[in-house]
Amino acid sequence: MANNISVEDVPISRFHRLLTVRSGGGSFVDGYVLSIIGIAMTQVSPALGLSAFWEGLIAASALIGIFFGGFMGGALTDRFGRRRIYFVGPTLFVLCSVAQFWVQSGEMLFVLRFLTGIAVGIEYPVATAFLVEFMPKRSRGPCLATLTILWFAGAAMAYLAGGAILNLGGTDAWRWALASTAVIGALLFLVRLGTPESPRWLLSKGRAAEAEAIIRRVYGASFGLKNLSQQAESKKLSFLHLLHSGYGKRMAFVTIFWTCSVIPVFAVYAFAPKVLEALHLSGDWAAYGSIAITLLFVVGCVLATRMVNTLGRRKLLLHSFLWSGLALLLLGALRDGPSMVILILFGAYALFIGGAQVLQLVYPNEIFPTVIRAGAVGIGTSMSRIGAAVGTYLIPISLQSIGIGPTMYIAAAITLLGLLVSWFLAPETAARSLEDAASLDDESTPQTQHVSGSWSKHTG
Q: CA-CA distance, 200 to 211, in Å (whole number)?
């Protein structure tokens, strides 16, 4: 009987697949936005007369915006609901992208790219919270992991579309390239029309009647609040209260593992040709190597997505950090080795780090309750982008000042720090309900026992 089935145990439906497209579009735009500026910059710099300072600042502007947007998006999504904030990102994508077509200065371009970054930062908490709060238990991890693959798809589309526009559009083609994001933003806005509010968020605000109506609409007339594990209000619990109650350790875990997984990836992905050149690979080796590494990043994420349920979150994360860290260590030790060995080790890193990449959006959405879920994802997004910006900024300086060997050792140390933190703090959430995954009952300490009794009533 449907009356006895949890909404987390239902088969995946057309609604769930459409929701994955609706939420995944944000990750696709993220990859597109962060990549299109690099392609257009060859024409932007001479057209606007940019100095090296402004070139670097504009290149980093979206990352800076994501830092602020993550905090803002998380707080706004938890306070005002998932559905309202769902349309903020697409709206900003359209407005800022169209405005870039008429940009006349580096300062103006920086502001518009910064606002676009804020839109991307807002997307992470709202899109993933929507997805995890509707998705069946078995599909939750793979669907969240798919968003990482869509990031690479967006980046690939930027290279294809941007290259075509620059080749066909003349000296002002860069304006069309930067404005092209508006097309994706408009499509994202349209496809999200009709998305209902999250019943879990409504219930956390005491709006039980609205939550039940949406459950019936999505899952069928025989379903209701009785089929949702979350049963009570949680509006009296603040973010700071919950962190003090024991979720601070989980926030530290998410922030550290996410940051440790993105610093080497952003550095390697952004400067693959320069890194390969430092490893004595040039010409065709460097060109084909860069393409192969990009493809292996995607392959690694695809394989990890398939293993996120079977292997489990914790094991997948530990193996990902361990083997990718060892690959970086060997790259440092064998930096003067044969070209084929260098490419194999680089490829191994790209392949194995896929596990940590896909779990960046899975873990924070599963181990925090509804009332602070989006806020936790927002903080993780913002803090990890600091690491990404630092890694991207420092890699050319490091290659020039200390050389490729020590640079690879530093990258390996960061990766193995992620392994160490994950070993002590990473929980296993596969096959658990959203309520159980977010509960602290299995790790109670004297500090958290005073809330563990009531907590099971309002998590999930």
A: 7
